[in-house]
Amino acid sequence: MRRAPVGLVSLFGLKMASWRLVLTVLALFAWGCGPELAIYSDSDSSHDLAADAVGIVGIPNLDDDNENDSGDWADGVVGDASDDFTTAQVAGENDFVSFTIRDLAFRGLKNGESIVLVLSGDTNAIRIWSGDRVVLGAVAGGFMEDRELSSTDEDQVFEVEFRDFLTSGELRLEHRDRDQEVIAATAVKLTASPLLLNHHLQPSEDVWVVDIDAGPGFNNQQMVGVYAEVLGDRFIPIDGPTYNYDQWIQDEIEFGWTVGGDAANQIVVDSIRDRPLDAYPEDELLAPDVVIGTWGEPELANSLDYFGNLEVSPPVTVDGVDYPLGRIYWGGAPSFHPHEELTDFLEGQRVQRPFQVDTTWLCVSHIDEFTSFVPDPDSEKGFKFIYSGTQVAWELLEQMDPGTALPRYGLNMPNGHGLPNVAALVNNGPLRDLNEEIQEDYLDPILDQFKEELGLTDDDIMLMPSLFEEAFNCGGYVAALIPGMANLISTTSNGQTDIFLADPFTRDSNSSESGQGDDPLIQHVREHFPDSLDLHFVDNWSVYHMQLGEVHCGTNVQRTPDPLWWQDSLHLLEGSP
Amino acid sequence: MTSSSPSAALSLPLVGMLILVAAPVMADTQGLAVDGTVSNHGEVGSTTIERLLTAHGLRGAPYKALRDTLVADASLPGEELAALSSHEDWRVRVTASAVLGWRTSPQLFQAIQDATPVQARSGRQDLRHEAFSQPNSRPAVVERLLHGSDSSAVRSGVAVNLVGKGDDWGSLTVHILAEERSAEVRVALLWMLRGAEAQAAMDGAQLGLMDTDATVRAQACRTVGYHPLGAELVSELLNALDDDDGRVRADAARSLGWLRAEEASDALVPGLVDPVPEVRLHSLRAISRLDPSGYRLVPWLGTLMDDQDSRVARLARRLHDQ
Predict the structure, then answer these.
(1) CB contact B114 to A (< 8 Å)
(2) Across A53-113, where does the E strand assignment appear?
(3) Residues from chain B contacting residue A415 (CB–CB below 8 Å)
(4) Closest Cα partner for B63 from B149, B165, B161, B185?
(5) DSSP per residue over B123-161, as a string?
(6) Residue A512 CA: distances (Å) to CA of A30, A104, A230, A464, B30
């Protein structure tokens, strides 16, 4: 059981701020003056937390630290009445956030006066622990809203437990007279972390790809080899046969976090997709401090519920509102969208305010097929938005010798596109018309929407050469003809960013190992991507591209969370949900 | 074949047998229902076939039993099967090729028969076993398509492996299309025909345009639009503009634009007020391609710029601004 992810600590080079808050009551005795209540933070004794909107931030206790196949919140209380506080913290519990009330709170109390802790808000979803006992909040059979504290000469340590995402309340420390009238009080907000989904600019930790080798015509061995070489121990190949060659690890799970105090839980959002990889999270990822959650009904799943269709932008500012954790976006349409149980939940998390764009013109309908983000340390915003563009593809192809053979494209379905050379592309009238329609009807307006939703300017955008074609057996809907290079993976570790993207094979070569330097599309991408990025064009043709996906679809990445997200994101939680 | 051949006694009945074996090929389900209807397809009368079946004890037998009997029949020489592999009746060809293939490349046939599909990201079922890429795999692919017990989705994935296998893959695809019972597979076969030689593509598209299933007719419209010789079927596309199904009308309009079928300009105008947005969109764009002057569109653009479908409105505004 870990307190916080090692990567998180090492990356930021600081110990995660302790939520050992000190609620110090300074009882001032002076002529005509009663005790003064004030709440101070441990880390800054001059900082009055009562005036701070942040308060105490913890995480929902959703994991299973004692590994008894039951969530720890449910394990927490064994008593069965509101006055029975027989309780038991589970073994290994580490998801609480603590605060201290100092002995100063009781000095100078006059006869009959008392110091009382009062809990309000989600009182049935918060527990205040003192040692192994719940003293406030939820207990079996009800909840306790206030408790008089015993006078003591020692500091009293309490811990806060939250039941769910964004559980919130207020903890008041009241100085009462003998008639229980409040003489003075101070209050601290209590907030449980929302689910925080990762975006591409966060430092990367582990990277997963399903390892498939079903012969020379259907394998991803070159791609797996590049990942292993570049990422070393951070790369985790998943055995393909074990999971029935389900190569779409991106679609199965989405990684996120809850972070609060000095605790963090990894949240694995398990898609309702339920193809063979469905078992992988439980098989390999489930552990203390890891929560696997599913929103939606598997029997209603469609392609839009797969997590290639769930992405997060880097931090942006839109119309003066900062989104330090980025904004979630997914593909769909008013009548065809991801399961509302999930989208409603994500909207309710508020700090990464989601939006939807139309992806229903695509056969697979995933947002990752034509959008992505990469770091750009030299730019004002720190990133580039990678977006599919058809015109740039035509321009590059038209500059090529029409007779240039394209061996990969020349293969017949299901291994290729039946287009043997450059001429077969550039002289293909219907293909041009189709891509003109896609550009005008979808790509252009969707790009306008991204600009508006994310506050982007043209300088923030890099158009990736892309062409689409009608996909086989897909009702006229389209998929990538040129392997979708926008469908990429960005990993950053120790300051080094590597980009893994599809080899477009727009050259007379059948191998990713040869000719990349002569490939005009690769050259174009290298020239336009930020210099600091190390690009790896990998062979994803048979296992991904011809199966209607690309590198991002076949990869998943765990990333390091922002350890102090609340410091600059709390404004997004203010107001009504 | 001649009457002096050692296998002459088998030859004529054999043709009938092969036809019979192939006859119910489009069944969605496994097994054969042997009945006299096959006599209408071949050159052998039902009486002969029934005598043959009775003699072999195969009346009512499933395909596999029939095929295995022929594979094991030592009196049936490979030369004769090879000759029958180019017989004028496509059913004789595919069955003779399968029998011959099982004799000469049983491992390849078994591999194709046993291959399990992989799911594309869309859920499409693809067959990606190496055996499907072998140059001599066509008879096995056809056999699985016609006689396997796969679902329609898997059969579609099997079918696409026919593309480019043999010079006559297009005409073979049309033959199969003509008798295929599954609309899903017919759509797949029509998609494949986009890349077939002209005659096959147009024959298949004509069949598709007359199909009872709207998804098939819509795919046929697209196939015509994609094919370099699609202009041969402009009149059929014009008829499709009046189809009951909006998808068909939309795809017909789009293909007419792609084909630059100028004669279609007037016929496309009613599509501008079609209740289906896709029809309005593709009609508008097709007319703009066929009539760059915009003459026909002028009276309509004002209304279309306010269309409830944002794509239509955007396109209308661009055309108006031009």
Answers:
(1) no
(2) 56-58, 97-101
(3) 133
(4) B149
(5) S-EE---GGGGSTT-HHHHHHHHHH----HHHHHHHHGG
(6) 82, 71, 16, 19, 43
- Buried b / exposed e over B187-221, threshold 16 CB at 10 Å, is bbbbbbbbbbeeebbbbbbebbbebeebbbbbbbb
Query: Any chain B CB within 8 A of the CB of A91?
Result: no
Q: Which of B108, B119, B122 to mutate to test the interface with A (most CBs of A within 10 A)?
A: B122
Q: How far apart are CA B68 and CA B50, in angstroms?
A: 18
Q: Is A437 on the interface with B (CB under 8 A)?
A: yes
Domains of chain B in sequence order: 230-322 (1.25.10.10)
Contacts of B106 (CB under 8 A, 6+ apart): none
Interchain CB distance below 8 Å, A441 and B318 = no
Q: Which distant-in-sequence residues (6+ apart) come within 8 Å of A163 by Cβ?
A: A60, A61, A73, A122, A124, A125, A126, A138, A192
Kindly list the residues from chain A whose CB atom is less than 8 angstroms away from the CB atom of residue B127. Answer: 414
Instruction: Give A482→chain B minimum CA distance, Å.
Output: 16
Residues A154, A494: Cα–Cα separation, whole Å: 44
Antiparallel, parallel or unpaired: β A533-538 and A496-502: parallel
d(CA B280, CA B254): 10
Contact assignment for A473 to B187 by CB distance below 8 Å: yes
To probe the interface with B, which of A473, A510, A551, A555 has the most B CB atoms within 10 Å?
A: A473
Q: Say yes or no for a CB contact (<8 Å) between B191 and A470.
A: yes
pTM score, whole prediction: 0.90
CB pairs A-B closer than 8 Å:
110
Residue among B121, B315, B318 minimizing CB distance to A547: B121
Among A218, A413, A551, most B C-beta atoms within 10 A, so best to mutate, is: A413
pLDDT in tens, chain A (577 residues): 333 333 333 333 333 333 334 443 333 333 334 444 655 555 555 555 566 678 899 999 999 999 999 999 988 765 555 555 556 778 899 999 888 887 778 878 888 999 999 999 999 999 999 888 889 998 877 888 999 988 887 888 889 999 999 999 999 999 999 999 999 898 999 999 999 999 999 999 999 999 999 998 899 999 999 999 999 999 999 999 999 999 999 999 999 999 998 899 999 999 999 899 999 999 999 999 999 999 999 999 999 999 999 999 999 999 999 999 999 999 999 989 999 999 999 999 999 999 999 999 999 999 999 999 999 999 999 999 999 999 999 999 999 999 999 999 999 999 999 999 999 999 999 999 999 999 999 999 999 999 999 999 999 999 999 999 999 999 999 999 999 999 999 999 999 999 999 999 999 999 999 999 999 999 999 999 999 999 999 999 999 999 999 999 999 999 999 999 999 999 999 864 4
Nearest to A437 among B130, B132, B285 (CB): B285
**CA gap B197, B218 in Å, rounded:** 20
Q: B121 and A549 in contact by Cβ < 8 A?
A: yes
Residue contact A547–B318, C-beta within 8 A:
no
Residue A159's SS3 state is strand
